[in-house]
Specification:
Elements lengths: L1 H14 L6 H8 L2 E5 L8 E2 L5 E2 L1 H14 L5 E5 L5 H6 L5 E2 L7 H6 L2 E3 L4 E3 L1 E6 L14 E5 L4 H11 L5 E5 L2 H9 L5 E5 H10 L6 E3 L7 E3 L2 E3 L3 H20 L6 H15 L5 H9 L2 H8 L29
Parallel strand pairs: 1-4, 1-5, 9-10, 9-11
Antiparallel strand pairs: 2-3, 6-14, 7-13, 8-11, 8-12
Amino acid sequence: MLKRLALIVLVTIFALPATAGTLDDVRARGKLICGVSEGIEGFSLRDANNVWQGFDVDFCKAVAAAILGDPDKVDYLSLSADQRFEALTKGNIDLLSRNSTWTMRRDLALGLDFVGPIYIDGQSFLVPALYGLNSVRQMEGATICVVRGTTSEVNGPNFFSAAGMQVNFTPFADRDEARKAYEAGECDALTGDRSALAGERAQTADPDAHLLLRDVISKEPLSPVVRQDDPQWTDLVRWVLFALINAEELGLTAEQTDRLRQLGAPMVENFDLDPDWYQHVLSSVGTYADMFERHLGENTPLELSRGLNALWTEGGLLYAPPMQ
């Protein structure tokens, strides 16, 4: 009886229809649904025309360009730190491109895949310039604004406890709320990823009145995130990221059609992409360097240098496996 029951179960399982993967869903829908932040200058923020712009937005465009041949075929869903991972696991979005730190707990406990570091960051602090602070070690007794559901909410108390310093953290539901509380003087400092704080500083009424400390108290490898149950989709998104990095390293341009087709052939074969998918990507957003300089670089309001996000050939940590 037990053998017969087991056979029935096996037959039932193998008879179930195969479920469509994320790639099939995106193609059928004709749109990529991409989760982004509530609004961080340089990363994902609506402009005066209510159009999403930024470094994380450009990655969404790159994935859409690779699959659909059009970077504008993206619907953006604004998500707080508390909402982002649940929105992905529930299938409300196809891709999370929203300054999210890759940690072991998140990787193993949430059923998610972090496709690879897109920005190497670290936690720091934004303080009023009039305080005259130049080190986190001078923040004894400070009240610090932090966004709930972030690694900063955990790293900050751990750092100050280890340093034997007494500070108070005030958590907020989202970044906009935290920044406004900091600007209103409810907190002595605002903490978060250093790149995000550069964006918050740029959004204040008077950026010059605020100082972003040079101290970094954690490592924050930020990565696009996908669901763990779809390895085909993980591979596709991961190799779009690697393609952007390799394009900078190899000095590629959208005009090098033959070379791009040669490099992109495995993606065409494995995912049935247009032979010119790589050209579509570079025509849409350029290389990793183009994305960085356009939204985050020293000539933007964030005024960030490449630093650790320079190519490995230039002293940074940015490294992608070869495409051939």
